[in-house]
Structures are given as C-alpha cells and as structure tokens.
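Dear support,

I submitted the protein below through the web form. The confirmation email said the job was done, but the results page showed an empty box. After a refresh the structure appeared. I'm attaching both so you can tell me whether what I see now is the final result or a partial one.
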Amino acid sequence: QVDAVRVYVNSSSENLQYPVLFVVRQQKGVLSWQVPLIFRGLYQRTYNYQEVSRTLCPSEPTPETGPSDQVIFVDVASMAPFNIAYELLVTRLENFQLETNKAFNFTASPSQPQYFLYKFAQDVDSVVIKVVSDAVYPCSVVSVQDIVCPVYDLDHNVEFNGVYQSMTKQAAITVQRKDFPGEQFFVVFVIKPEDYACGGSVPSSIHGNVNRTWNLQRTKNLQVTIVPSIKKSVYIQAMFFSFLSFLSFYLGSVVVAFVHYISTDMKLTVPFGSVSIAGSGIMTSSHPITASTPEGSSYGAIDESSSSGGRQLSSPERGPPAGSDTDSSVEEESDFDTMPEIESDKNVVRTKVFLYLSDLSRKDRRIVSKKYKIYFWNIITIAVFYALPVIQLVITYQTVVNVTGNQDICYYNFLCAHPLGVLSAFNNILSNVGHMLLGFLFLLIVLRRDILHRRAMEMKDIYTLDYGIPKHFGLFYAMGIALMMEGVLSACYHVCPNYSNFQFDTSFMYMIAGLCMLKLYQTRHPDINASAYSAYASFAVVICLAVLGVVFGKNDMWFWVIFSMIHVLASLALSTQIYYMGRFKIDGPDSDLGVFRRAAMVLYTDCIQQCSRPMYMDRMVLLIVGNLVNWSFAIFGLVYRPRDFASYILGIFICNLLLYLAFYIIMKLRSSEKLLPIPLFCIVATAVVWAAALYFFFQTLSSWEETPAESREKNRPCILLGFFDDHDVWHFLSAAALFFSFLVLLTLDDDLDAVRRDKIPVF
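What the results page shows now:
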C-alpha cells in the first residue's frame, strides 16, 4: 500500500500584493504555491482562492531499500511588512490507491485538486476509468499521468502530461498496461475556474469584482470506478462476427443464383428473377422481328406495319457496324434527325401524351452504354482523389491525439471505444466492413448480369434486342463503388470524428442517393438521362453547399435565405425539365429569363385561363408532391436552422429518393405490371432493415455540434457482444439496407424482360 500526504493551507489575507508563499521540499521534488491562489480565465479574468489543498507526490518504497521514513520540509514566507495569519494542516490519505471494480467518492475544487494511484492487477491488460457526477458544472478535467513527480494537478498545467478529457457529468478513459511500463498510473481530477470549455458561460457576477474570493463555491462531488476492459478474445469474436455476418450474403447470393440456374433454361438465364430468354415461346405474331437484326441497329426500332393501319415506319438511322467500338461524340449526341417521318423528331416523340419505352430508347445501344460507363470510371477517379487526402488527414488527427493525449479532439463514444494499435476506437472502424463487402458483392452480381447480357447480345437474341428494359450497367457499377467508398470514408471519419471532417461520412451518401434517383429515372428514360459529367458536377455543388452549411449554417441567417432560394429554384427548374422530358429549351433573345417566362405562361394557360387537365397528369402529381416536400424542407431550414446541416441535406436527398421510388412502384402496379418474388422480397427487406437501422441511427451517442464534455454526456455502453455500440449496429444495418435497396433497383423490372418496349409505358 502506497502512503500519500495531503497539505491544507488557509490564509485570511486577501492582499494580492503580499501573498503567502508555501514551498514543500521532498526527497524527489519540490512543490510550491501561493495564497491567495490566483487562476486566470477567459479574457484575463482572475479568480482568487484563500484555501488550498494539494497532495504531495508519494514516494513508493523500493525492493532494495524497503519501507523507510520520508522527511518533508514545508517553508512558509511572505514579503508583507505586517503579520499575516495562516493555517497549515498535514494529513495522511487513507484511500489513495484505487481498487478495481470499487467505486470511490470524493470532492474537488479548483484550488483543491485530487489525484489517486492505480496499479494493474495481474490478469488485467486494459482498464476503463469511469467518472460520474450528479452536477453538470463546474467543468472538470480527468487526466491519466505516469508515475512521475511533480504531478500536474492545476488548471494551467494539467494538459502538460498524460491523457486528459474535459467533463461535465461523465467521462471514460481506456488505459492499456502496455502504455505504462511501471504498470501503474495516477488519475488526476482538476476543477476548472470557468465553465466555457464545457459549454457553460462565464459568471456575470465577476464583471464588477475581479478580485472576488471563490473558495468553496466551485466544489464538485465525483465518483470514480476503474473496471477491466474487454479481453483479446472479444476482439477476435467481434471480427469473426463482422466478416461472417456479411459473407453470409455471399452464400445467399450463390444459393439464389444456383436455384435460378437449375429452375430455368440451362442455355441462357438472366440472374435474380428474370425469365428465360430462349425457348419461352412468349413472342407474339403481331409484332414480327427478325432475329437477324444487326447488332449495330437501334434497339428501339420495331416494325409496326401490322399495328399502325398499314403505315410503315422507317427504321432509325443505323449505328456503326457490329464490330465497331467507336465512341465519338457525334454518334453519342445523334438526334436521329435523318428519319423522314415526323414521329422521329424528339420534340414530337417526347411530348406525346402516352409515351412508351420504345420512344425513349432509340439511340444506338453501344453508344448509350458507353455513356453510362462513364459514371463508373468517373466515380473511381473521384474516389481515389477524394480518399487519399482524407486518409492522410485522419492519420494526422490520430497521431495528434496519441502524441498530445488530448481526447477532446475526437468525439468518440468513450464508454464503448476499444483501441487497437494506434486506433482509439477500432470497433467504429470495423463495423464499416459491411459497406465494403456488400458493395463488392453487388459489383459481382451486376457483373454476372452484364456478362449474361453480353452473351445474349452475341447470339442476337430477340428478347435482348427489343424486349424489356434496356440493359445499361454503368450506373449500377457506380453504385457499387459508391457503397464501398462509403464504408472506407465512414471508417476514416470514425478514426477521429469531429466538426472538421464530418463531410467525409456523408459525401458518398449524397452520391449514393443521387445515383439511385438517376438509375430509377434512367430505367424508362435511357436516352435522356443526365450525363456523368453534369451529374457529378451537381454532386460537387451539393458537397460544397454542405461544407458551407457546416461553417456558416449555425447562426448566419443570410446563408439560409440564399440556400432556401437555391433549393426552391433548383426544384422548379428540375421539375420543368422532367415534365417536358428534357425538351423545355431556353432560347431566344430573352434566354436568361426564358425558362421562368415560359413556365409562367404554361401555368397561366393551363391552370388559370383554361383550368384544363394537365397533359401529363401522373408526372404532374409526382412533381407537385415533390415540390411541396422540397419547399417544406426549405421553409423548415429557414425557420429552425438545424445545426447538423450535412444531415439536413442528406434528409432532402433521401426523402426525394423515397418519394420517387414510391411513385415508380405505384405507377408500375397501375400499369398492370408485376412484382416478381425476388424484388418483392428485396422491397420488404429494405423497408424492415431501414426501419431498424434508423432506430439505431437516432440513438445519439456523441455530437460534435456540442463541446466534448457535453458530447460525453450522451455516451453509452456497448450493446452487441460487449464490443459494438448503437452506432456500430447502425453501420451494420445501413450497409444491409443499402444493399437491398440496390437489389430493388436491379430487379424491379425483371418482369418486363418478355414484354415489347412499345408496350412498356414511361412514367
């Protein structure tokens, strides 16, 4: 048992010109202070304390010398020309050494700090120091320091050594045996003279009296408990659980693919719910198509001589020969203007009241596919250039935390932060493995579909050429890469989560939501979907707005006014383009105001002058509801100005995606189309898993919008395997939910593989 001595001094003098000086000399160190003891706060405010109590650095007996008497000298001096009364009391501490799993209660103040000794037990490699208090203020600091004298136990020097955290109602520090060669350490408790570091305000009463004596007005009752941390076997168990949980998805995918392989035509099969495309005998005689259609011809060309009253529609202009692999911009931008019939003109075709997929799938298949492949290659480039500096930055953050010991830099859930190597919260990083594994699995599923589709094209299969939704896989590949990168960047963010790097965790979530909306729109509008360059440029603008919102969105009203205007105008402009299928041109001498003038004219003509029914009723309903939702978001942001701007933008994206997906499914069912078992299962699984994931997402365990001490008030213990917390479960479930969401988009229209494109409605 280590003995420690505590010295208490008190002086009635408040004369700052002639303080009483106390010097304590020990065998291995000197400790000195003055009374009144002065603490400096914000803006050079001063706080005076006439009562001071300090614990002297203990001298532990060594095996060579054994127990021995320690001589302590206390020198008292003052330069005052008059007598000053003081009180000196030296006591022996009875409970200086803390015990494992045993709570200890004590009181501390700015002038009376406390520290205690803890020795690792024989079978304990890591412990968690848990400190709690019933009172939020005064603000305090918990520090773990090596057994070195002097001990830094005052407000101005507690950050000089060891690991430390600021604290209001609770704190937790994980300490590993390997970091302390002596297998023991001091736990230091310091009360700060002001509360602004913990989110409080400076007391207004001090403004008129800077020399006020505080003494016992800032005392705090604390309870410390040191408990063993998890063992290495728990780390191994958690890693096995993480990988096996998601590898089971691989096994399930193999089983589903095998079942469909043996249950459909062994010759040609489309994966995940598609019907056989050879020997099915579904083809109707009213629309004859020869199987020798050249691969280079437009896959939207259908002979409609028997269904259009004898009128023969010339086939579109043929693309390059079958063996050509050209990617010229001329061909990509071809509008098929050489078609002789007026129906070939885009402005006529795309503004018909009833549109079918054949109207919007007229461009050459290979050119359109290459256009969408740009999404894939661009997102790889973006991912590399985005991820490299992110990784470098978070490594720097982690290094700073490890070197300085300042655990206020990163906003962990300290009650469930399990270190591994140089990482402070390995569990938050490991839980992101699901995004990477499921993203890669989705890429494999898309690759299998792509390969089977290529084989069918090589065989000139009629169903592949002119039936079903056109197969373009570029956006699916981009979605898989985005899911993997979300896992990588979320892991990077959780290396050291804080205010300055939160956008790492959300940037690819914006891209995932945007790509999903683009893919859903591309399904029945393959010829008029946005190009990769404009799409990624739009995502870049959104990410820039997110960064600006994090910086200026807290208190600056001007930012919310500008953002709300941009949000509303962008919604109107996008709605106009969607309503007119991209044929709403801005031209003429007044092109700068043309879009708004024409929109106002259409609104006046259709809704006020004639009160007529909109030409495209379904689209109009979707766009009205969508605009109401977006305007509601804009008004909400303008009124309440949410502090978490990044999540606010993400909410806008997700709501728009869910709205469009719901509209798509409703219109699909209205058109007498079916939901096959696999997409139906994916829809149900998506809804269930997303509901569970969002429950854990809203279990706030930390918040970089507040001070580190306030954030720690939200910390909670682990809930899964003693290793993962609520946010880790959110990572697991959100990865599965995104995977199922992607499968919904991939398989939703598999029922149309045997339906002619001139019979598939566009909505």
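Response: this is the final, complete result; the empty box was a page-load delay. The radius of gyration is 35 Å.
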